[in-house]
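From: lab user (bench 3)
To: helpdesk
Subject: output format question, protein + adenosine-5'-diphosphate

Hello, I'm new to running complex predictions and I'm not sure whether the block I got back is the full result or only part of it. Here's what I submitted:
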Amino acid sequence: MLELTDVTHVYPNGTRALDEVTLSIPKGMFGLLGPNGAGKSTLMRTVATLQTPTSGAIRFGDIDVLAEPERLRERLGYLPQDFGVYPRVSAYDMLDHMAVLKGVASAADRKATVETLLNQTNLWAVRKKAIAGFSGGMRQRFGIAQALIGNPELIIVDEPTAGLDPEERNRFLNLLAEIGENVVVILSTHIVEDVADLCPRMAVIVDGRIRLEGAPRELIERARGTVWAKTIARGELDSYRERYEVISTRLFAGNTIVHILSESDPGEGFAPVEGGLEDVYFSTLATTRRGLTAEDLAA
Ligand code: ADP
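Helpdesk reply: Thanks, we reran it on our side. This is the complete output you should expect:
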């Protein structure tokens, strides 16, 4: 279990990137969903002990993460949002080198570790190729391979599917799903389907604050009866925006399908939607923009 209590981070320029974040993250996949600039990377880097928060506490099992960062690092696998420079070194040699850095001392252990990880991430066939020449999907799979060195108990992957094509994305998510239920895996993303497909628990972060937390299924259930849809002409959209809380719009066969948030039947030809996680997410963003929280709405 990873526990964050009132974690706040204010950058030197005054940006409050995290605002009293309190979260309990159990074993299994946990989705941290939020738009760009919400504070996801700041939170991931903070938990990965790459930066120290302005205030708050973080515990992982019996580890006080802020007081004993090196103990956390021994148990951590981290795939940053930007891996930086991709070396002209082969995948095999790079993994071997990183295993040395992670303290896998014996050559025999390293060989076993590196070979297992290359197979697990489906990179065995390209193990002798330079990482510099890898596609986006291969790089991300390599990123997971290096994050898994040393059997980490906490794995953090920051926006791993950004820029991947659908097939690569699927392959990558399947790989994450296989990592297992006995470790804490935090997946930060702005892509709703990443979370919907994969995560038994999730939170939505906006403007540095946790706005919603729970199991996707429960959150969808809780939102039932509040989302309504109607197909309108494209030119009508502005007038609907003035009268309703429009949470999303989608073009379909030249018309626009609007989804709105309403506690009661809005009439005017709107039909209730069997909302999905996307509606839950966009509702949360809409109410946040209005300065309300989901709890306010439920009250
Ligand atoms: P996300 O990963 O969700 O896109 P970030 O954690 O990168 O969000 O950013 C959260 C907020 O903090 C944004 O407003 C961003 O501009 C700001 N921010 C991020 N890094 C820094 C920094 N080093 N200095 C100042 N502001 C920063």
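A quick orientation on your result: The domain at 2-215 is CATH 3.40.50.300 (Rossmann fold). Let us know if anything else is unclear.
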